[in-house]
Amino acid sequence: MNAYRLLPFLFLWCFAKTNAQSWYHPELKALGAPELAPFEFGVASGDPLPDAVVIWTKLFLDTDKPQSVTWEMATDSLLHQVVQSGEQATYRNSAFTVKVDVRGLTPGTTYYYRFGHGGKYSPVGRTRTASQNAELLRLAVVSCADYQNGYFNAFGHIAKRNDLDAVLHLGDYIYEGGVWRGGPRKMMRNRVREHVPDKTCTELVDYRTRYGQYRLDPQLREAHRMHPFIVIWDDHEIANNATVDGPERATADWETRKATAKQAYFEWMPIRENPERSIVRSFSFGNLAELWMLDGRLEGRSKQAVGFDDPSLNSPDRHMLGTQQTDWLLNGMAASKAKWQIIGNQVIFSQLNDSKVFDRRPSVRLDRWDGYPAERQSIFDFIYKNNLKNIVVVTGDVHTSWAFELTGNPDDPNVYDPKTGKGVVGAEFVTPSVTSFNFDDVVPRFITVEAKRRFKKRKNNPHLRYLDLNHHGYLTVTLTQEQAQADWFFVKRKDQVDDRVKNRASRRILADGKQVEKAKRGVR
Ligand SMILES: [Fe+2]
Q: Is 131-518 a CATH 3.60.21.70 domain?
Protein backbone atom coordinates (compact mmCIF):
# COMPACT_ATOMS: atom_id res chain seq x y z
CA MET A 1 0.00 0.00 0.00
CA ASN A 2 1.20 3.46 -0.93
CA ALA A 3 2.45 5.29 2.20
CA TYR A 4 0.27 8.29 1.39
CA ARG A 5 -2.80 6.09 1.63
CA LEU A 6 -1.86 5.35 5.22
CA LEU A 7 -1.93 9.00 6.19
CA PRO A 8 -5.70 9.26 6.86
CA PHE A 9 -5.53 6.15 9.07
CA LEU A 10 -2.51 7.53 10.88
CA PHE A 11 -4.36 10.79 11.43
CA LEU A 12 -7.45 8.98 12.78
CA TRP A 13 -5.30 6.86 15.08
CA CYS A 14 -3.53 9.92 16.50
CA PHE A 15 -6.83 11.78 16.86
CA ALA A 16 -8.39 8.84 18.70
CA LYS A 17 -5.36 8.59 20.98
CA THR A 18 -5.50 12.28 21.87
CA ASN A 19 -9.24 12.20 22.41
CA ALA A 20 -9.06 9.10 24.53
CA GLN A 21 -6.94 10.91 27.08
CA SER A 22 -8.56 14.29 26.90
CA TRP A 23 -11.38 14.03 29.39
CA TYR A 24 -9.05 14.37 32.38
CA HIS A 25 -5.56 15.70 33.00
CA PRO A 26 -3.07 12.79 32.95
CA GLU A 27 -1.73 13.48 36.47
CA LEU A 28 -5.06 12.26 37.85
CA LYS A 29 -4.18 8.67 36.93
CA ALA A 30 -1.36 8.58 39.48
CA LEU A 31 -3.78 9.35 42.34
CA GLY A 32 -6.10 6.38 41.68
CA ALA A 33 -6.10 3.13 43.64
CA PRO A 34 -5.41 0.48 40.94
CA GLU A 35 -6.97 -2.31 42.99
CA LEU A 36 -10.40 -0.67 42.50
CA ALA A 37 -10.04 -0.44 38.68
CA PRO A 38 -12.06 0.43 36.74
CA PHE A 39 -14.14 1.74 39.68
CA GLU A 40 -11.44 3.93 41.26
CA PHE A 41 -13.98 6.68 41.97
CA GLY A 42 -16.14 4.27 43.96
CA VAL A 43 -19.93 4.40 44.05
CA ALA A 44 -22.45 6.95 45.25
CA SER A 45 -26.18 7.37 45.70
CA GLY A 46 -28.52 10.28 46.17
CA ASP A 47 -31.84 12.08 45.84
CA PRO A 48 -33.86 9.53 47.83
CA LEU A 49 -37.60 9.48 47.13
CA PRO A 50 -40.04 7.16 48.92
CA ASP A 51 -39.74 4.65 46.05
CA ALA A 52 -36.55 5.60 44.21
CA VAL A 53 -32.90 6.49 44.60
CA VAL A 54 -30.17 7.45 42.13
CA ILE A 55 -27.03 5.28 42.08
CA TRP A 56 -23.75 6.39 40.47
CA THR A 57 -20.37 5.15 39.37
CA LYS A 58 -17.72 5.96 36.77
CA LEU A 59 -15.38 3.87 34.69
CA PHE A 60 -11.77 5.05 34.62
CA LEU A 61 -10.83 3.87 31.12
CA ASP A 62 -8.77 5.08 28.18
CA THR A 63 -11.13 4.35 25.35
CA ASP A 64 -13.54 6.02 22.99
CA LYS A 65 -15.85 3.04 22.64
CA PRO A 66 -19.24 2.86 24.39
CA GLN A 67 -19.16 0.63 27.46
CA SER A 68 -21.80 -1.46 29.15
CA VAL A 69 -22.20 -1.57 32.93
CA THR A 70 -24.42 -3.92 34.94
CA TRP A 71 -26.00 -2.94 38.25
CA GLU A 72 -27.92 -4.71 40.97
CA MET A 73 -29.73 -3.57 44.08
CA ALA A 74 -30.55 -5.80 47.05
CA THR A 75 -31.95 -5.67 50.55
CA ASP A 76 -28.86 -7.37 52.05
CA SER A 77 -25.18 -6.44 51.95
CA LEU A 78 -24.18 -9.81 50.42
CA LEU A 79 -26.56 -9.08 47.53
CA HIS A 80 -28.44 -12.36 47.93
CA GLN A 81 -31.87 -10.69 47.91
CA VAL A 82 -31.65 -8.72 44.66
CA VAL A 83 -34.79 -6.64 44.07
CA GLN A 84 -33.78 -4.71 40.95
CA SER A 85 -31.03 -5.10 38.36
CA GLY A 86 -30.16 -3.93 34.87
CA GLU A 87 -27.57 -2.95 32.33
CA GLN A 88 -26.71 0.52 31.12
CA ALA A 89 -24.54 1.89 28.35
CA THR A 90 -22.11 4.72 29.08
CA TYR A 91 -20.28 6.92 26.63
CA ARG A 92 -17.28 9.10 26.18
CA ASN A 93 -19.41 12.27 26.11
CA SER A 94 -20.33 11.74 29.77
CA ALA A 95 -16.73 10.73 30.65
CA PHE A 96 -18.08 7.21 31.30
CA THR A 97 -20.06 8.23 34.34
CA VAL A 98 -23.06 6.01 35.05
CA LYS A 99 -26.27 7.10 36.73
CA VAL A 100 -29.31 4.88 37.30
CA ASP A 101 -32.57 6.15 38.81
CA VAL A 102 -33.71 2.93 40.48
CA ARG A 103 -37.50 2.92 40.87
CA GLY A 104 -40.07 0.62 42.50
CA LEU A 105 -38.40 0.57 45.93
CA THR A 106 -39.95 0.52 49.42
CA PRO A 107 -39.98 3.71 51.55
CA GLY A 108 -37.66 4.01 54.56
CA THR A 109 -35.61 0.98 53.54
CA THR A 110 -31.85 0.42 53.45
CA TYR A 111 -30.57 -1.05 50.18
CA TYR A 112 -27.20 -2.29 48.95
CA TYR A 113 -25.96 -2.00 45.35
CA ARG A 114 -22.97 -2.57 43.09
CA PHE A 115 -21.91 -2.20 39.49
CA GLY A 116 -20.10 -4.66 37.21
CA HIS A 117 -17.93 -4.21 34.12
CA GLY A 118 -15.74 -6.71 32.24
CA GLY A 119 -15.89 -9.29 35.02
CA LYS A 120 -14.95 -6.77 37.74
CA TYR A 121 -17.25 -5.39 40.43
CA SER A 122 -17.44 -2.10 42.25
CA PRO A 123 -17.43 -1.86 46.04
CA VAL A 124 -20.92 -2.50 47.49
CA GLY A 125 -22.70 0.76 48.29
CA ARG A 126 -25.37 1.35 50.94
CA THR A 127 -28.31 3.68 50.48
CA ARG A 128 -31.74 4.46 51.89
CA THR A 129 -35.11 5.54 50.50
CA ALA A 130 -37.06 8.39 52.11
CA SER A 131 -39.11 7.24 55.08
CA GLN A 132 -42.80 8.24 55.09
CA ASN A 133 -43.82 7.36 58.65
CA ALA A 134 -40.62 7.50 60.66
CA GLU A 135 -40.59 8.94 64.18
CA LEU A 136 -37.12 10.38 63.64
CA LEU A 137 -35.17 11.79 60.71
CA ARG A 138 -31.45 12.56 60.97
CA LEU A 139 -29.54 14.45 58.29
CA ALA A 140 -25.83 15.26 58.26
CA VAL A 141 -25.13 18.70 56.82
CA VAL A 142 -21.79 19.59 55.18
CA SER A 143 -20.26 22.26 52.99
CA CYS A 144 -16.96 23.77 51.87
CA ALA A 145 -14.41 20.99 51.50
CA ASP A 146 -11.21 22.51 50.15
CA TYR A 147 -8.90 19.63 49.21
CA GLN A 148 -5.78 21.74 49.64
CA ASN A 149 -6.75 23.04 53.07
CA GLY A 150 -6.87 19.74 54.95
CA TYR A 151 -7.90 16.10 55.04
CA PHE A 152 -11.58 15.25 54.80
CA ASN A 153 -11.91 13.89 58.36
CA ALA A 154 -15.49 15.09 58.65
CA PHE A 155 -16.43 12.85 55.71
CA GLY A 156 -14.42 10.06 57.34
CA HIS A 157 -16.54 10.27 60.48
CA ILE A 158 -19.81 10.59 58.58
CA ALA A 159 -18.91 7.42 56.65
CA LYS A 160 -18.73 5.47 59.92
CA ARG A 161 -22.17 6.50 61.17
CA ASN A 162 -25.14 4.18 60.94
CA ASP A 163 -27.77 6.62 62.17
CA LEU A 164 -28.15 8.97 59.19
CA ASP A 165 -30.98 9.09 56.67
CA ALA A 166 -29.00 11.23 54.21
CA VAL A 167 -26.15 13.73 53.88
CA LEU A 168 -27.01 17.25 52.69
CA HIS A 169 -24.13 18.90 50.84
CA LEU A 170 -24.79 22.64 50.64
CA GLY A 171 -22.05 23.51 48.17
CA ASP A 172 -18.38 24.18 47.57
CA TYR A 173 -17.99 20.46 46.94
CA ILE A 174 -14.89 21.40 44.94
CA TYR A 175 -12.87 24.59 44.76
CA GLU A 176 -12.14 25.70 41.23
CA GLY A 177 -8.78 27.43 41.80
CA GLY A 178 -5.30 26.10 41.05
CA VAL A 179 -2.52 25.44 43.54
CA TRP A 180 -2.17 28.21 46.15
CA ARG A 181 1.07 30.08 45.84
CA GLY A 182 1.72 33.04 48.08
CA GLY A 183 -0.85 34.33 50.55
CA PRO A 184 -0.50 34.81 54.31
CA ARG A 185 2.05 32.47 55.89
CA LYS A 186 -0.53 31.15 58.34
CA MET A 187 -2.78 30.15 55.43
CA MET A 188 0.06 28.57 53.50
CA ARG A 189 0.87 26.33 56.47
CA ASN A 190 -2.61 24.81 56.09
CA ARG A 191 -1.91 23.59 52.58
CA VAL A 192 -1.54 19.84 53.04
CA ARG A 193 -1.91 18.77 49.38
CA GLU A 194 -2.18 20.31 45.94
CA HIS A 195 -4.92 20.66 43.40
CA VAL A 196 -4.77 19.11 39.96
CA PRO A 197 -4.89 20.56 37.44
CA ASP A 198 -2.64 23.41 38.57
CA LYS A 199 -4.90 26.04 37.05
CA THR A 200 -8.31 27.57 37.62
CA CYS A 201 -10.97 25.28 36.15
CA THR A 202 -12.52 26.81 33.05
CA GLU A 203 -12.75 23.93 30.55
CA LEU A 204 -14.69 20.68 30.88
CA VAL A 205 -11.48 18.66 31.19
CA ASP A 206 -10.43 20.84 34.16
CA TYR A 207 -13.68 20.46 36.09
CA ARG A 208 -13.78 16.71 35.40
CA THR A 209 -10.23 16.30 36.66
CA ARG A 210 -10.98 18.34 39.78
CA TYR A 211 -14.07 16.27 40.65
CA GLY A 212 -12.04 13.16 39.94
CA GLN A 213 -9.31 14.27 42.34
CA TYR A 214 -11.80 14.97 45.12
CA ARG A 215 -13.60 11.67 44.57
CA LEU A 216 -10.30 9.79 44.81
CA ASP A 217 -10.01 11.03 48.40
CA PRO A 218 -10.71 7.82 50.39
CA GLN A 219 -12.79 9.55 53.10
CA LEU A 220 -15.09 11.37 50.70
CA ARG A 221 -15.41 8.25 48.55
CA GLU A 222 -16.38 6.20 51.63
CA ALA A 223 -18.97 8.77 52.79
CA HIS A 224 -20.59 8.50 49.34
CA ARG A 225 -20.50 4.70 49.50
CA MET A 226 -22.25 4.60 52.87
CA HIS A 227 -24.97 7.29 52.56
CA PRO A 228 -27.26 8.89 49.99
CA PHE A 229 -26.29 12.52 49.35
CA ILE A 230 -28.66 15.38 48.53
CA VAL A 231 -26.51 18.07 46.96
CA ILE A 232 -26.67 21.67 45.80
CA TRP A 233 -23.86 23.78 44.41
CA ASP A 234 -22.63 27.09 45.81
CA ASP A 235 -20.22 29.28 43.84
CA HIS A 236 -16.93 27.35 43.80
CA GLU A 237 -18.35 24.55 41.67
CA ILE A 238 -18.45 27.23 38.98
CA ALA A 239 -16.42 30.38 39.87
CA ASN A 240 -15.99 32.58 42.95
CA ASN A 241 -19.16 34.54 43.83
CA ALA A 242 -21.03 33.29 40.77
CA THR A 243 -24.37 34.83 39.79
CA VAL A 244 -26.68 34.39 36.81
CA ASP A 245 -24.82 37.13 34.95
CA GLY A 246 -21.25 36.40 35.91
CA PRO A 247 -18.77 35.74 38.71
CA GLU A 248 -16.86 38.19 40.86
CA ARG A 249 -14.06 38.47 38.30
CA ALA A 250 -14.96 38.81 34.65
CA THR A 251 -14.44 35.66 32.64
CA ALA A 252 -14.56 35.13 28.91
CA ASP A 253 -17.82 33.64 27.72
CA TRP A 254 -19.61 33.19 31.05
CA GLU A 255 -22.53 31.27 29.52
CA THR A 256 -20.20 28.58 28.16
CA ARG A 257 -18.29 28.31 31.42
CA LYS A 258 -21.50 28.04 33.45
CA ALA A 259 -22.86 25.32 31.15
CA THR A 260 -19.54 23.48 31.33
CA ALA A 261 -19.43 23.59 35.14
CA LYS A 262 -23.04 22.42 35.33
CA GLN A 263 -22.30 19.54 32.97
CA ALA A 264 -19.39 18.34 35.10
CA TYR A 265 -21.48 18.68 38.29
CA PHE A 266 -24.30 16.59 36.86
CA GLU A 267 -21.83 14.00 35.59
CA TRP A 268 -20.19 13.55 38.98
CA MET A 269 -22.98 14.07 41.52
CA PRO A 270 -25.63 11.45 42.34
CA ILE A 271 -28.34 14.00 41.56
CA ARG A 272 -31.45 13.13 39.56
CA GLU A 273 -31.12 14.16 35.90
CA ASN A 274 -33.38 16.86 34.47
CA PRO A 275 -33.17 18.64 31.11
CA GLU A 276 -32.48 22.10 32.62
CA ARG A 277 -29.77 20.78 34.96
CA SER A 278 -31.57 22.54 37.80
CA ILE A 279 -30.70 21.74 41.42
CA VAL A 280 -34.00 23.15 42.76
CA ARG A 281 -36.08 20.28 44.08
CA SER A 282 -37.93 18.99 47.16
CA PHE A 283 -38.03 15.77 49.13
CA SER A 284 -40.83 14.39 51.27
CA PHE A 285 -40.28 12.55 54.54
CA GLY A 286 -43.97 11.93 55.21
CA ASN A 287 -45.72 14.00 57.85
CA LEU A 288 -42.41 14.64 59.64
CA ALA A 289 -40.53 16.86 57.18
CA GLU A 290 -40.41 18.41 53.73
CA LEU A 291 -36.97 19.34 52.43
CA TRP A 292 -36.56 22.24 49.98
CA MET A 293 -33.20 22.48 48.18
CA LEU A 294 -32.55 25.93 46.72
CA ASP A 295 -30.32 27.48 44.08
CA GLY A 296 -29.24 30.91 45.32
CA ARG A 297 -26.50 31.16 42.69
CA LEU A 298 -27.43 30.37 39.11
CA GLU A 299 -31.23 30.26 38.98
CA GLY A 300 -32.14 33.89 39.64
CA ARG A 301 -29.41 35.71 41.58
CA SER A 302 -28.75 39.30 40.55
CA LYS A 303 -25.23 40.70 40.71
CA GLN A 304 -23.99 41.65 44.15
CA ALA A 305 -24.57 45.27 45.18
CA VAL A 306 -21.46 47.44 45.07
CA GLY A 307 -21.77 48.60 48.68
CA PHE A 308 -24.29 49.48 51.36
CA ASP A 309 -24.74 52.87 49.74
CA ASP A 310 -25.58 51.24 46.37
CA PRO A 311 -28.98 52.77 45.50
CA SER A 312 -30.13 49.44 44.04
CA LEU A 313 -29.49 47.47 47.28
CA ASN A 314 -33.11 47.57 48.48
CA SER A 315 -34.70 47.29 45.04
CA PRO A 316 -37.36 44.58 44.74
CA ASP A 317 -35.87 43.87 41.30
CA ARG A 318 -32.75 42.37 42.88
CA HIS A 319 -33.10 38.65 43.55
CA MET A 320 -31.33 35.81 45.32
CA LEU A 321 -33.75 33.11 44.15
CA GLY A 322 -35.88 34.87 41.54
CA THR A 323 -39.66 35.11 41.47
CA GLN A 324 -40.31 31.64 40.07
CA GLN A 325 -38.20 29.82 42.66
CA THR A 326 -39.52 31.96 45.53
CA ASP A 327 -43.13 31.25 44.55
CA TRP A 328 -42.39 27.53 44.26
CA LEU A 329 -40.86 27.49 47.76
CA LEU A 330 -43.52 29.59 49.49
CA ASN A 331 -46.54 27.93 47.89
CA GLY A 332 -44.96 24.53 48.52
CA MET A 333 -44.38 25.24 52.20
CA ALA A 334 -47.89 26.65 52.62
CA ALA A 335 -49.42 23.51 51.08
CA SER A 336 -47.20 21.04 52.96
CA LYS A 337 -48.75 18.89 55.70
CA ALA A 338 -45.36 18.02 57.20
CA LYS A 339 -44.43 19.24 60.68
CA TRP A 340 -41.03 20.69 59.66
CA GLN A 341 -40.06 22.68 56.58
CA ILE A 342 -36.31 22.24 56.06
CA ILE A 343 -34.69 24.67 53.63
CA GLY A 344 -31.28 23.70 52.22
CA ASN A 345 -29.67 26.99 51.24
CA GLN A 346 -26.22 28.26 50.26
CA VAL A 347 -25.66 31.51 52.20
CA ILE A 348 -26.71 32.90 55.61
CA PHE A 349 -30.41 33.75 55.45
CA SER A 350 -30.68 35.54 58.78
CA GLN A 351 -29.84 39.20 59.25
CA LEU A 352 -26.27 39.33 60.50
CA ASN A 353 -24.91 42.59 61.78
CA ASP A 354 -21.15 42.41 61.29
CA SER A 355 -20.69 46.13 60.79
CA LYS A 356 -19.08 46.31 64.23
CA VAL A 357 -16.80 43.38 63.36
CA PHE A 358 -15.64 43.88 59.78
CA ASP A 359 -15.77 47.60 59.22
CA ARG A 360 -14.11 47.39 55.85
CA ARG A 361 -15.45 44.14 54.36
CA PRO A 362 -18.93 44.85 53.01
CA SER A 363 -18.48 42.42 50.11
CA VAL A 364 -18.62 39.48 52.53
CA ARG A 365 -21.97 40.67 53.79
CA LEU A 366 -23.43 41.57 50.41
CA ASP A 367 -22.94 38.03 49.12
CA ARG A 368 -25.34 36.75 51.82
CA TRP A 369 -29.09 37.35 52.04
CA ASP A 370 -28.21 40.67 53.70
CA GLY A 371 -27.32 41.81 50.18
CA TYR A 372 -30.81 40.89 48.91
CA PRO A 373 -33.05 42.41 51.61
CA ALA A 374 -36.22 42.98 49.57
CA GLU A 375 -36.58 39.37 48.49
CA ARG A 376 -35.89 38.13 52.02
CA GLN A 377 -38.49 40.51 53.41
CA SER A 378 -41.06 39.26 50.89
CA ILE A 379 -40.40 35.72 52.13
CA PHE A 380 -40.90 36.74 55.77
CA ASP A 381 -44.05 38.72 54.83
CA PHE A 382 -45.51 35.56 53.26
CA ILE A 383 -44.49 33.42 56.24
CA TYR A 384 -46.18 35.77 58.73
CA LYS A 385 -49.26 36.30 56.56
CA ASN A 386 -49.81 32.56 56.14
CA ASN A 387 -48.85 31.77 59.73
CA LEU A 388 -46.11 29.33 58.64
CA LYS A 389 -43.88 28.00 61.41
CA ASN A 390 -41.45 25.19 62.23
CA ILE A 391 -39.09 26.33 59.48
CA VAL A 392 -35.48 25.20 59.74
CA VAL A 393 -32.97 26.80 57.35
CA VAL A 394 -29.68 24.92 56.99
CA THR A 395 -26.78 26.84 55.51
CA GLY A 396 -23.11 26.48 54.47
CA ASP A 397 -20.76 28.96 52.80
CA VAL A 398 -19.29 30.83 55.79
CA HIS A 399 -17.02 28.03 57.08
CA THR A 400 -18.13 28.72 60.67
CA SER A 401 -20.94 27.51 62.98
CA TRP A 402 -24.03 29.55 63.84
CA ALA A 403 -27.58 29.22 65.20
CA PHE A 404 -30.20 31.96 64.82
CA GLU A 405 -33.81 32.42 65.73
CA LEU A 406 -35.55 33.07 62.40
CA THR A 407 -37.31 36.40 62.49
CA GLY A 408 -38.42 39.05 60.01
CA ASN A 409 -36.49 41.80 61.79
CA PRO A 410 -34.29 41.19 64.85
CA ASP A 411 -33.93 44.93 65.53
CA ASP A 412 -37.61 45.90 65.52
CA PRO A 413 -39.35 45.26 68.88
CA ASN A 414 -42.69 45.27 67.07
CA VAL A 415 -41.56 42.23 65.08
CA TYR A 416 -39.23 40.36 67.45
CA ASP A 417 -38.65 40.03 71.14
CA PRO A 418 -35.58 37.98 72.05
CA LYS A 419 -36.89 37.47 75.59
CA THR A 420 -40.28 35.98 74.70
CA GLY A 421 -39.51 34.75 71.19
CA LYS A 422 -42.26 36.88 69.70
CA GLY A 423 -41.97 36.82 65.90
CA VAL A 424 -39.87 33.64 65.72
CA VAL A 425 -40.89 31.26 62.92
CA GLY A 426 -38.11 28.70 63.27
CA ALA A 427 -34.34 28.41 63.35
CA GLU A 428 -31.32 28.69 61.10
CA PHE A 429 -28.43 26.29 61.69
CA VAL A 430 -25.13 26.88 59.86
CA THR A 431 -22.60 24.09 59.33
CA PRO A 432 -18.83 24.71 59.62
CA SER A 433 -16.54 23.93 56.70
CA VAL A 434 -15.16 20.44 56.23
CA THR A 435 -11.72 22.03 55.76
CA SER A 436 -12.01 25.48 54.13
CA PHE A 437 -10.27 28.21 56.06
CA ASN A 438 -12.03 29.91 58.93
CA PHE A 439 -10.82 32.29 61.58
CA ASP A 440 -8.00 30.39 63.26
CA ASP A 441 -6.55 29.38 59.88
CA VAL A 442 -6.05 33.00 58.98
CA VAL A 443 -5.92 35.38 61.97
CA PRO A 444 -4.33 35.35 65.44
CA ARG A 445 -6.43 34.00 68.31
CA PHE A 446 -7.06 37.38 69.99
CA ILE A 447 -8.80 38.63 66.85
CA THR A 448 -11.12 35.61 66.82
CA VAL A 449 -11.97 36.12 70.48
CA GLU A 450 -12.77 39.78 69.89
CA ALA A 451 -14.77 39.08 66.73
CA LYS A 452 -16.85 36.48 68.56
CA ARG A 453 -17.53 38.89 71.41
CA ARG A 454 -18.73 41.56 68.99
CA PHE A 455 -20.91 39.19 66.99
CA LYS A 456 -22.54 37.90 70.15
CA LYS A 457 -23.26 41.32 71.65
CA ARG A 458 -26.99 41.37 72.17
CA LYS A 459 -27.45 44.77 70.63
CA ASN A 460 -25.61 43.68 67.47
CA ASN A 461 -27.33 40.32 66.92
CA PRO A 462 -30.09 39.70 69.48
CA HIS A 463 -31.31 36.57 67.62
CA LEU A 464 -27.89 34.84 67.55
CA ARG A 465 -27.95 31.69 69.72
CA TYR A 466 -24.67 29.94 68.94
CA LEU A 467 -21.38 30.84 67.32
CA ASP A 468 -18.06 29.11 66.75
CA LEU A 469 -15.48 30.67 64.43
CA ASN A 470 -12.60 28.20 64.70
CA HIS A 471 -13.63 24.61 64.16
CA HIS A 472 -14.15 22.37 61.15
CA GLY A 473 -16.49 19.44 60.89
CA TYR A 474 -20.18 19.02 60.24
CA LEU A 475 -23.66 19.38 61.65
CA THR A 476 -26.51 16.93 62.14
CA VAL A 477 -30.14 17.97 62.23
CA THR A 478 -32.43 15.52 64.02
CA LEU A 479 -36.17 15.91 63.65
CA THR A 480 -39.05 14.40 65.60
CA GLN A 481 -42.65 15.59 65.90
CA GLU A 482 -41.58 17.31 69.14
CA GLN A 483 -38.36 19.12 68.22
CA ALA A 484 -35.59 19.95 65.75
CA GLN A 485 -32.10 19.59 67.16
CA ALA A 486 -28.76 20.66 65.73
CA ASP A 487 -25.57 18.94 66.89
CA TRP A 488 -22.19 20.33 65.80
CA PHE A 489 -19.40 17.76 65.41
CA PHE A 490 -15.90 19.19 65.23
CA VAL A 491 -12.83 17.32 64.00
CA LYS A 492 -9.72 17.28 66.18
CA ARG A 493 -7.37 18.20 63.32
CA LYS A 494 -7.18 18.49 59.59
CA ASP A 495 -3.45 18.31 58.94
CA GLN A 496 -3.56 14.50 59.16
CA VAL A 497 -6.07 11.78 58.41
CA ASP A 498 -7.84 11.42 61.78
CA ASP A 499 -11.62 11.01 61.83
CA ARG A 500 -12.16 11.54 65.57
CA VAL A 501 -14.81 14.17 66.27
CA LYS A 502 -16.39 15.79 69.31
CA ASN A 503 -20.01 16.89 69.66
CA ARG A 504 -19.13 20.35 70.92
CA ALA A 505 -22.51 22.06 70.91
CA SER A 506 -26.21 21.33 70.55
CA ARG A 507 -29.20 23.62 70.10
CA ARG A 508 -32.88 22.83 69.57
CA ILE A 509 -36.20 24.44 68.88
CA LEU A 510 -39.41 22.80 70.04
CA ALA A 511 -42.24 22.25 67.57
CA ASP A 512 -44.33 25.44 67.47
CA GLY A 513 -41.67 26.84 69.78
CA LYS A 514 -40.42 30.37 69.88
CA GLN A 515 -36.86 30.02 71.08
CA VAL A 516 -33.64 28.30 70.13
CA GLU A 517 -32.23 26.84 73.31
CA LYS A 518 -29.33 24.73 74.52
CA ALA A 519 -30.02 21.02 74.21
CA LYS A 520 -28.58 17.86 75.67
CA ARG A 521 -25.79 16.69 73.40
CA GLY A 522 -26.83 14.22 70.72
CA VAL A 523 -25.15 10.96 69.78
CA ARG A 524 -21.38 10.83 69.66
FE1 LIG B 1 -16.66 27.80 50.83
A: yes
